[in-house]
Structure formats: structure tokens, C-alpha cells
Amino acid sequence: MAITLSNTARSAAADAVVDLADGGYIRIYDGTQAANPNTAIGSQVLLAELTFGTPAFGAASNGVATANAITQDASANNSGTATWFRVLQSNGTTVLWDGTVSTSGADLNLNSTSIVSGGTVSITSMTYTQPES
Question: Between 121 and which of 48, 63, 85, 129 could a Cys-Cys bridge form, CB atoms 3.0 to 4.6 Å apart?
Fold first, then answer.
């Protein structure tokens, strides 16, 4: 398909997606990222779970929505190397999107991908970008 979205349409689409994350969760895992957000978690280990506020994101501009403050995980679930994350609705079961984790060049960049059980995990900023096509 050769359909592309205007900035107005991209912003509306981004707002619709991120509104679903209000009060939801960011779960950070080790191992291989699931094939897509519809794929169940397999042997990957949950390392940390952070919580979005309500609203989770501000209004999108040109298809980009910036997250409001995200509540840290003050006691990480397990130790391991963070490789990917999953965003869920506030019910904790409905998956919205997945992404990669690294220290740079990923969908979610952490200051360290080494997570220690009981340690603090925080995210200082996050954006969601709606593709043009």
C-alpha cells in the first residue's frame, strides 16, 4: 500500500494508542523479544515492571507523544540483562506494543541493561512515534 498519513492523522492515531496505556505498565524482560505483541511470553524472565500515570502521555505533535512521569520499579523482580519491553493496559493483560531495550539506539534506552533483583529501575523519558505509513 502507498497510503501515508498526514501529521494531523499521525497525531490522532498516536493519541488513540497511548491513551490505552493510561495507568498501564511497562514490563522489561530478558531473552529474545516475542515475535509480535500478540505472541505470549515464553521462557523470557520479567526483570522489572514500571507504571504509567493517568494520563500516560501528553497530546501528540506530528505523530509523537511524550510520556508523562513513569513510576519506577523500586524493587526489580529478577536479575538479568534487559533486551526488550512490553507495554500493557491497566488491566495488566491487554498488550499494546513491544520494543527493544539497550543503552542506545533502541526503542527504550536505559543507562544500564544489567538489572539486579531488588534494585531500582527507572525511565526518565519515553516517546511513542506513530509511523507515517
Answer: 48
pTM, entire model: 0.95
Closest CA to 82 of 126, 37, 40, 121: 121
| Tens-place pLDDT, residues 85-113 | 999 999 999 999 999 999 999 999 999 99
Separation of alpha carbons 81 and 125, rounded Å: 20
C-alpha torsion sign, points 111, 16, 99, 39? positive
